[in-house]
Amino acid sequence: MDKNVIQSYLFSRIRSRMSVLEMRLLMRVVEFAQCELQGLIIAKNIGPTQHNLCGKVVDIPVSSVLAAGSHHYDRVLDAAKSLMAKIVEHYEPGSGSWKAASFVSAAEYTSGEGIISLYIHPWVWNCILDFTKGYVKYDLSAAMRLQSPYAVKLFFLVSNQKQPISYSFNELERLFGTQGKYARRNDFVRKVLLPAKAELDASAPWSCDLRPMKDGRRLEYCMLYPFEQKDKYSEGIVARSEHAKFPSVWAYHQLYQYMRYNLDFSPVELGRNKALLHEFAELVPDATGAVADMHFRAARRKDPPGKGWYIAAIKDEIKKASMNKK
User: Fold this and answer.
1) What is the enclosing helix (H) or strand (E) of 72?
2) What residues contact residue 204 under an 8 Å CB cut-off, 6+ apart?
3) 120, 139, 192, 215: least surrounded by Cβ within 10 Å?
4) Whole-angstrom distance between the N-terminal and C-terminal Cα of the chain?
5) Sign of dihedral through CA atoms 210, 214, 219, 222?
6) For residues 259 and 265, is the Cβ–Cβ distance under 8 A?
């Protein structure tokens, strides 16, 4: 799905070496976490996220993390097992608190169904949604297309960044999971950073120029100079950017998606009420939020109402908005 994803800064700066399939699985988990935060169901996936005593259970279509036409499901299962062996940890110097857990606590897959279920520890889920230290915004489809895990990591670091960024080589090697792999930092630049930059240059909406800097005779830090490549955004993001120039059109699109996938309205039912929904989107600020509030109130009723109740409620909101406008 073409969309911008908001990923917590803490999660973006995980210090671990990962394969591209492991990173794609985690990006799908982040996508599900964000959609749960917004109260949405992911249209092209399975959603919504399940909750149980083990934490969160995320059902991910295996095909959504593979390259188009690939049927190597076994590689996705191996990536899930690898994530079960990797640790995410967080230390707060001020309080002295330290926490750690595996990225994935368990995984399930049934042959023929095409779905892998990942069990996410509650603390890891909270880490994904912890925006107190900032966040990274990136084009999810563009990130999923990248072939190198190093390119994905660099994409996280530079996406939507307007100012130059400085990283010590010690920090970069930890972030890219290459500690101890390269004796010379020039080799790290040549074999890790430059190929990652080249892949971003070729296919990503954000890339960067690199300037390794010395302190004396030794390379000590690297300056990243991010730049935007507007012609490389995913088609859906470009379309939404155009729609945003026409607020009522974009609002109608959001409203349609919400009613289609959260309230189970069929395309025929929505088409029958198209003029009504367009009027609602034009007159009522945050029309989707208003319907989500209706959904919340309906769910609390002893006998939840049918679809006709929502249409009647929308008509009432239109009347109120029209009167207030006069």
Assistant:
1) none
2) 139, 142, 143, 146, 151, 155, 229, 232
3) 215
4) 41
5) negative
6) yes
Nearest alpha carbon to residue 39 among 309, 263, 273: 263
List Cβ neighbours of 311 (8 Å cut-off, separation of 6 or more).
Answer: 273, 276
* Torsion angle, alpha carbons of 296, 240, 246, 41, to 10: -10
Q: Is the pTM of this model over 0.90?
A: no
Give the 3-state secondary structure percentages of the chain, helix then strand then coil, rounded to 5. 50, 20, 30
d(CA 102, CA 124): 8
Place of tokens 């509030």: 293
CA 178 to chain centroid: 25
Collapse the DSSP code of 267 into the 3-class scheme (helix H, G, I; strand E, B; otherwise coil) and give the result.
helix
Q: Is the dihedral of CA 244, 246, 248, 249 positive or negative?
A: negative
Question: Which CA distances in Å does 20 have to 14, 26, 144?
Answer: 14, 10, 9
Looking at the DSSP bridge assignments, the partners of residue 106 are 119
State which amino acid sits at residue 151. A
More confident residue, 149 or 243: 149
Q: How far apart are CA 36 and CA 177, in angstroms?
A: 30
The pLDDT tens digits for 228-251 are 998 888 775 555 554 444 455 667
> Cβ(220)–Cβ(214) under 8 Å?
yes
Check residue 236 and give its pLDDT.
59
Amino acid sitting at position 56 = K
